[in-house]
Specification:
The complex is a heterodimer of chains A (662) and B (242).
Chain A: H1 2-10, H2 13-51, E1 68-78, E2 81-91, E3 109-112, H3 114-122, H4 129-132, E4 134-138, E5 150-155, H5 158-163, E6 168-169, H6 183-209, H7 212-224, H8 229-262, H9 281-302, H10 304-308, H11 328-344, H12 351-385, H13 390-401, H14 403-431, E7 445-451, H15 455-466, E8 471-478, E9 483-484, E10 487-496, H16 500-513, E11 518-521, H17 522-526, H18 530-564, H19 566-574, H20 579-617, H21 626-653
Helix pairs in contact in A: 1-8, 2-6, 2-8, 2-9, 6-12, 6-14, 6-18, 8-9, 11-12, 11-20, 12-13, 12-14, 12-20, 13-14, 13-20, 14-18, 14-20, 14-21, 15-16, 18-21, 20-21
Chain B: E1 23-32, E2 35-45, E3 50-54, H1 61-68, E4 76-81, E5 84-85, H2 91-101, E6 102-105, H3 117-127, H4 132-139, H5 142-145, H6 161-173, E7 179-183, H7 191-208, E8 211-215, H8 219-222, E9 227-232, E10 235-241
Parallel strand pairs in B: 3-8, 3-9, 6-7, 7-8
Antiparallel strand pairs in B: 1-2, 1-4, 4-5, 9-10
Helix pairs in contact in B: 3-4, 3-6, 6-7
The chains are: A alpha+beta (662), B alpha/beta (242).
Chain lengths: 662, 242
């Protein structure tokens, strides 16, 4: 039977092959998204393990008898990028050596990350290299958060570090700290994966329908000559396995190919090592088994009608219209989501809470898929009440008689609209996370906190900075006599010409004198928390991808629908209906439910997200701005354009020769 | 395993009215939604007999054929084949019965478009578990018999309507069924092609000693039967002597 199933699947002509290829591609997309989702936690863990050594976790209050190191980590910036300068000094024999370097650097020496070495080679020393010292080697990847991270391990004098308040360490931490990603971001990532998978699932369903009519005819013919339900199901399962196994394998290839690209997407100000983006083996194998199994089960379920009777295809009856009960899963899912947040918003890092929230979000998307036909039937009835011609009448009848099929065509776009609305609302919240500027800061200003400063060294520095080109004024905000934890802290406010070169020279000059100082430009203080900015960027990319996929689904669905009905259309034409009428019919029956259900979906997306944010933040959040309206309008118009691209072909597809019986 | 003596158009049996009936439908009723398609029909078929079921469109003649063939179970009444109650069999058992003992020729749509002509004829044998090579070996002699020599490698879409129907006739008979059910087998053909198909169908059925239930609304087609029955509004309005 396997051979016959494969033969039937592969010998079905161009349409069947396109159906298999599209299904395989859609499955591949879904598989790769899931593989990336499975890889997220291990990648995060890997990143934290690589940078664990910089956290002074093994602290000793007293001077150790054996070897130890003194360490001070300075979070500096270069051209807006984070630059970590780890100052370290050996005390006593057998001092521990951090990972990624062969030995501790002597005072004045430094090991640097490859990315930092590249930057240093590109610019004059007074912009960057002078902050680092004499480079004697490269820090290996095992000690870096990301391939692009700028890190320097700088050898320092023990006395200087003691004066800076550093305590001795007898070893380096290997266990990662708690995640630095805010729990709300983890929640968003869970929801994003669910949201991204929904249009993929619709695309799979649409691609499967591409040659469904022919497949149903073939399987019904087989039933007629005596194939048992089990044999027919077996043939359909073989066909489904062909596309899903191929898709799952392509998904693995896609995952491997896209991994270096995905590794470039920053999260928490760091890109990723491609090899670190790897799913746990057991989970990956389970996924690769599950994808074809689910595909096969779906194929078997889709055949119920044919399996029950060999005449299932011939004897079509109008099914009862969808009832209001279809709204129930949607309502229940929203209630579960909000309920889980109301009771578990303080435990967003809890896996169970996240799982419930993810499942509820998936439930809402599934709920839209269930409620969609009910809404489509309402749109059809409304259209029927005001018929303006044959096309409107036919479109309204089609919407009321087959609301499931009609909604199936637009389901991808509608779900994408929900996902886009939800995530734009989140992005609006993210945009509101900017740090307010201190009152006196203006563009071109630089603020500096000088550690271990004294009145005289601070005065000397002010003179030197004042003489630098591009620096207009240097004002001490507070004297160096201010002591914090036994360390003198002085504050300066510089007015410059605003160029980044001057800012980096100032930073370098300060770092040379006071290596542990903190220096920031106005724009660096005014930037939104990077993780939220990154999120906004990812949302834009994700929404574009989702809409593209949904648009493809719609185009495939409409094409399939027209192809399946070319005979009826040819009959309508021969009965006198103009081609323009047929085009209007196709457009109307896609556009009417699309616009109405998309509005419902957008309102639901915004409403649910507002509720989530209010529950998490316990305060009102800004409504999404005009960009959402723009994106949604563009999405719906884009989707209709996809339908529009199909319209010219209607003339050719519905020529009277389509009236031939066989 | 199905044995496969060479197919022939020579009559090996002649139907005998004195034999016990091969297939009996008693008190058959079937409803589709609001429509009562069959309203209590009694029908019987003896071995080797060819019966034409006639009637206007929508009279229920196709539904009667579907019930007799075990495709659709009746709501009321019984169908007995060789003493076995067909309507009480499960879906799987009815499928196996159709595969082993019945053959089908419909108006159109019964060939699998993806398969070659010879594969379509061999299909019931493949479903019975016969190897592909053996099944095609058994199917091959049907092509010269049906006047289709050289068309073994064509797909249904590459053949004329008459040729496709002859493929369907060969497929219906390749398992040497006891009964062939034919629903408007010439409905989509011109009169010449239709006559060709009917001659081959009835001759091949006779050659195998198979009975035929022939649904048609054309008297010219019904003339190939030993007797005719007429269905009107879901009722048998009377057998008509051939």
């Amino acid at each position: 039977m396997t051979g016959l199933g494969l033969r039937l699947a592969l010998a079905g002509g161009r349409g069947a092959i396109i159906g298999i290829v599209l299904t395989a591609l859609a499955v591949a997309l879904g598989t790769s998204i899931l593989l990336f989702a499975l890889s997220f936690a291990p990648a995060l863990q890997d990143r934290q393990e690589r940078s664990a050594w910089r956290v002074p976790a093994v602290l000793l209050g007293e001077e150790p008898a054996g070897g130890a190191v003194l360490m001070r980590v300075v979070e500096d910036l270069y051209q807006g990028e984070a630059l970590v300068r780890v100052r370290m000094a050996s005390i006593g024999p057998d001092s521990p050596v951090p990972p990624g370097v062969p030995r501790l650097p002597a005072p004045g020496e430094a090991f640097v990350s490859p990315a930092l070495a590249d930057r240093m080679a590109d610019v004059p020393g007074d912009l960057l290299a002078d902050r680092i010292g004499n480079v004697v080697g490269t820090i290996q990847p095992e000690a870096l958060r990301s391939p692009q991270e700028l890190v320097a391990l700088i050898g320092a004098d023990p006395a200087e570090l003691r004066a800076d308040g550093a305590s001795p360490l007898t070893g380096f931490a290997t266990e990662p700290l708690d995640p630095t990603i805010p729990p709300i971001m983890v929640l968003l990532i869970v929801l994003a994966v669910v949201g991204a998978l929904a249009p993929v699932a619709v695309f799979v369903a649409t691609a499967t329908r591409l040659s469904a009519a022919r497949r149903e005819q073939r399987l019904a013919a087989l039933r007629l000559v005596g194939a048992t339900p089990r044999q027919v199901t077996g043939l359909a399962v073989v066909e489904a396995l062909l596309s899903t196994i191929t898709g799952a394998l392509i998904g693995v290839v896609l995952f491997v190919l896209l991994r270096p690209v995905v590794a470039l997407v920053p999260l928490d100000e760091a890109t990723w090592f491609p090899e670190a983006i790897s799913p746990p083996l057991v989970a990956a194998v389970a996924l690769l088994v599950a994808v074809p199994v689910v595909g096969a089960l779906a194929a078997a379920a889709a055949l119920r009608r044919i399996v029950v009777t060999p005449l299932g295809v011939q004897r079509r009856t109008t099914p009862p219209p969808p009832g209001k009960l279809r709204l129930l899963p949607l309502v229940v899912s929203v209630a579960v989501l909000l309920g889980a947040l109301a009771f578990g918003s303080s435990q967003l890092s809890d896996v169970l809470v996240l799982a419930v929230l993810g499942a509820a979000f998936a439930g809402i998307i599934g709920g839209i898929a269930l409620a969609g036909p009910w809404l489509t039937a309402i749109v059809g009835r409304a259209l029927h009440r005001a018929p303006r011609g044959a096309a409107t009448l036919l479109a309204s009848r089609r919407l009321t008689d087959d609301p499931r099929g009609s909604f199936g065509s637009i389901a991808g776009v509608v779900m994408a609209v929900f996902v886009a609305s939800a995530f734009f609302t989140f992005a609006g919240y993210a945009g509101a996370q900017s740090v307010p500027l201190p009152g006196e800061m203006r563009p071109g200003h630089i603020v500096a906190e000088l550690r271990t400063a004294t009145a005289s060294t601070q005065a000397e520095l002010i003179d030197r900075l004042g003489a630098m080109a591009g620096v207009r004024s240097v004002l001490p905000e507070s004297g160096a006599d201010v002591m914090v934890d036994g360390v003198g802290i002085g504050q300066l406010l510089l007015e410059t010409d605003g160029t980044s070169a001057v800012a980096e020279r100032v930073r370098t000059a300060i770092a040379v004198e006071f290596p542990s100082s903190w220096v920031r430009r106005t724009e660096e203080l005014a930037t939104a928390e990077p993780i939220y900015t990154e999120f906004g960027r990812v949302v834009n990319l994700g929404v574009m991808g989702t809409m593209l996929l949904a648009g493809c689904s719609l185009a495939v669905a409409v094409t399939t629908w027209v192809l399946e009905r070319r005979r009826q259309f040819a009959q309508l034409r021969s009965a006198g209906m103009p081609v323009s009428g047929l085009r209007k019919l196709v457009l109307l029956q896609a556009a009417a439910p699309l616009v109405c259900v998309a509005i419902f979906s957008a309102a639901l997306g915004i409403g649910v997200t507002q509720a989530i944010l209010i529950l998490i933040r316990a305060s009102a959040v800004p409504l999404p701005d005009a960009s959402l309206a723009l994106v949604l309008t563009a999405s719906v118009l884009g989707a209709l354009l996809m339908v529009g691209m199909m319209l010219p072909a209607i003339e050719r597809l519905t020529r009277p020769d389509g009236l031939r019986m066989e | 395993m199905i044995t496969a003596p060479a197919p022939t158009l020579e009559a090996v049996t002649v139907h005998q009215l004195d034999q016990p009936p091969l297939l009996v439908g008693a008190g058959l009723r079937k409803r589709f939604g609001q429509t009562e398609a069959l309203r209590g029909i009694d029908f019987s078929l003896t071995p080797g007999e060819i019966v034409a079921v006639m009637g206007p469109s929508g009279s229920g003649k196709s539904t009667l054929l579907h019930c007799l063939a075990g495709i659709v179970p009746p709501d009321e009444g019984t169908v007995t084949f060789e003493g076995r109650s067909v309507d009480r069999l499960g879906e799987g058992e009815r499928s196996r019965l159709r595969r082993a003992s019945f053959g089908f020729v419909f108006q159109f749509g019964q060939l699998v478009p993806e398969l070659l002509a010879i594969e379509n004829v061999a299909l019931p044998l493949l479903l019975n578990g016969m190897s592909r090579a053996r099944a095609e070996e058994v199917a091959a002699p049907w092509f010269p018999l049906m006047g289709l020599s050289g068309l073994e490698g064509r797909r249904p879409g590459e053949m004329s309507g008459g040729q496709a129907q002859r493929i369907a006739v060969a497929r219906a008979l390749v398992t040497r069924p006891a009964i062939v059910f034919a629903d408007e087998p010439t409905g989509s053909l011109d009169s010449l092609a239709g006559e060709g198909v009917m001659e081959l169908l009835t001759a091949a059925a006779r050659g195998q000693g198979a009975s035929v239930v022939l649904v048609t609304h054309e008297p010219r087609v019904a003339a190939y039967a030993h007797r005719e029955v007429i269905v009107r509004d879901g009722r048998l309005t009377g057998p008509v002597a051939s």
